[in-house]
Inverse folding.
């Protein structure tokens, strides 16, 4: 199935909690390709609303909430956002056997859910042959619990980059693991993922955690952490639990620091320049974004120490505002530069000289000054 | 002699100061033109840049420092190791030609080291 989907226009690979996807794709139309250990999957998203979840690991296929549960069971996942045109999205929906209504709104969730218990018919004799993969259907007669899939590997550097040419790591400002795993109203944390299952009936058919969702749903609802919802109100119709998760996440994300899609795209373009090994966006508190196959901690330490050096020097000179600092070693160049309200750190090979670096940074500043909204 | 060698840098358009310092922060020789900078501040800047950069570079392992470049909107400062314990520092306007400066630094490195 995955191979039949349109490629889309890749924005970049990154690593982040699954919830990040849903909170940062409000205007996104396309596919989020996900890689978890040796398996791969995707989420089709249309303007913030997930349309379809899918994951495959070996001969095990997960669809719908099972796939979503599996994604959510990992504190950090590696994924690639690929934008779709309308035609591409329509084709993707067709590949996934999802019908869209005339308004191009989301398909009714039951349609998505119902398909889930029938993975095999699709494989056996799909009239529209959405599953072209030669996966023997026999192993999957029952939606597989995500627990049968390999357990999440340790986060950070151990995520396999194999399918990804340039793996990207993203660490959003609110600590992802704690937020996802243990929201301060502790009882809410784990069940929070399951709570907003909107369709208990169809979910219960095929989703093992659904029974948990039923009782749990009542527990966090009173929690007024971020909730705009009345206490007694059932989780509204939203089709996908993932939409609920950000609402229950207590720490507010400081909007000015978050990177827009256009920023990520721009940084991705810089990463693609010849000689650029890695690029990181960071602030005083944490790393925000990392693109490139390097260990984040050493790079961040170096970047922070360089930043500290400039902060010591800057008050002593009257040379205007800080533009950038480059440290050249035989191993490569480390460059730090202010970027909007945060800082960029680039790690490059020695093929890039100071002149190149200045040009890159100058172009970056020019580009970010020009408002560019699609 | 060293001063004469450093004068070659002032000839480059935009270069305002050329300073040779020892690792302990002591200024061996300096030459300035068109820039006013407090001596104590200068020593602090140089020491900070030198020591911090060396410590930062050591995070790469036993990698020696090749060059440090700090740019501000009006000026920039380049720090380049000459010999094991000596550094050459160039302060210039941001319109100066960096390539030319680094070229001259490499070209005159032996001469400067011999004069230390």
């Amino acid at each position: 199935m995955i191979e039949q989907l349109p490629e889309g226009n890749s924005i970049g690979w990154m690593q982040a909690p699954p919830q990040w996807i849903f909170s940062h794709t409000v205007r996104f139309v396309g596919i989020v390709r996900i890689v978890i250990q040796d398996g791969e999957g995707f989420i089709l998203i249309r303007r913030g609303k997930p349309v379809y979840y899918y994951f495959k690991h070996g001969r095990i296929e997960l669809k719908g909430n099972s796939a979503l549960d599996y994604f959510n069971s990992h504190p950090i996942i590696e994924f690639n956002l690929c934008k779709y045109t309308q035609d591409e999205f329509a084709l993707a929906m067709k590949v996934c056997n999802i019908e869209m209504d005339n308004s191009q709104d989301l398909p009714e969730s039951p349609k998505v859910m119902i398909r889930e218990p029938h993975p095999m018919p699709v494989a056996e004799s799909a009239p529209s042959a959405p599953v072209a993969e030669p996966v023997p259907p026999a192993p999957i007669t029952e939606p597989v619990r995500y627990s049968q899939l390999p357990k999440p590997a340790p986060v950070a550097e151990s995520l396999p980059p194999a399918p990804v040419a340039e793996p990207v790591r993203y660490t959003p400002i609110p600590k992802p693991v704690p937020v996802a795993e243990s929201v301060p109203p502790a009882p809410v944390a784990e069940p929070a993922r399951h709570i907003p299952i909107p369709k208990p009936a169809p979910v219960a058919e095929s989703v093992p955690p659904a029974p948990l969702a039923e009782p749990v749903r009542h527990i966090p609802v009173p929690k007024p952490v971020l909730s705009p919802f009345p206490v007694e109100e059932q989780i509204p119709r939203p089709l996908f639990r993932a939409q609920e998760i950000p609402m229950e996440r207590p720490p507010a994300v400081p909007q000015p620091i978050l990177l827009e899609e256009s920023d990520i795209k721009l940084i991705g373009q810089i990463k693609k320049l010849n000689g650029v090994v890695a690029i990181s966006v960071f602030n005083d508190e944490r790393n925000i974004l990392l693109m490139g196959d390097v260990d984040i901690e050493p790079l961040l330490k170096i970047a922070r120490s360089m930043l500290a050096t400039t902060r010591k020097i800057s008050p002593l000179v009257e040379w205007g505002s800080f533009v950038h600092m480059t440290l050249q070693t035989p191993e490569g160049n480390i460059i730090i530069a202010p970027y909007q309200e945060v800082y960029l750190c680039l790690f490059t090979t020695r093929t890039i000289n100071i002149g190149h670096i200045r040009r890159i940074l100058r172009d970056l500043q020019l580009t970010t000054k020009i408002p560019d909204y699609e | 002699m060293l001063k004469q060698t450093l004068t070659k840098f002032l000839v480059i358009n935009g270069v305002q100061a050329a300073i040779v310092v020892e690792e302990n922060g002591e200024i061996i020789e300096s030459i300035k033109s068109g820039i006013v900078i407090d001596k104590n501040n200068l020593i602090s800047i140089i020491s900070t840049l030198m020591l911090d950069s060396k410590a930062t570079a050591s995070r790469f392992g036993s990698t020696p420092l090749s060059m440090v470049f700090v740019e501000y909107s009006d000026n920039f400062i380049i720090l380049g190791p000459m010999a094991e314990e000596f550094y050459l520092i160039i302060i210039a306007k941001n319109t100066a030609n960096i390539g030319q400066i680094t070229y001259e630094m490499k070209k005159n490195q032996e001469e400067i080291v011999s004069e230390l």
Notes: Chain B touches chain A through 32 residues (CB under 8 Å). The longest strand of chain B covers residues 15-22.
